[in-house]
Give the backbone structure.
Amino acid sequence: MLPVAAALAIILAIFAAVSGPQWFARDKTGFAAPTLPANLLGLITLLVIPVQILLIAFAMRGFQQDWHVEVEENADGSAYEPGPAVRPRPA
């Protein structure tokens, strides 16, 4: 899930980088006035970019530290150690 979260964060950061400046350019005719001021929406959209960069950094750091790997344990909490592999005897 960590690489997927990082990939989605990259996509969202790209969308925010493209759409952020467009909120500041809404003073032309033909645009309806949004409920919140356009400058505030542009600022919020641009603030999403550093948040996504942090998400990418933390997800990749977690992936590097093997947070995605599960460790098997016995019922008593001790570490699971697999025995020797059982191979069929040759006939």
Summary: The mean pLDDT is 84. Helices lie at 2-24, 38-64. The chain has two helices and no strands.
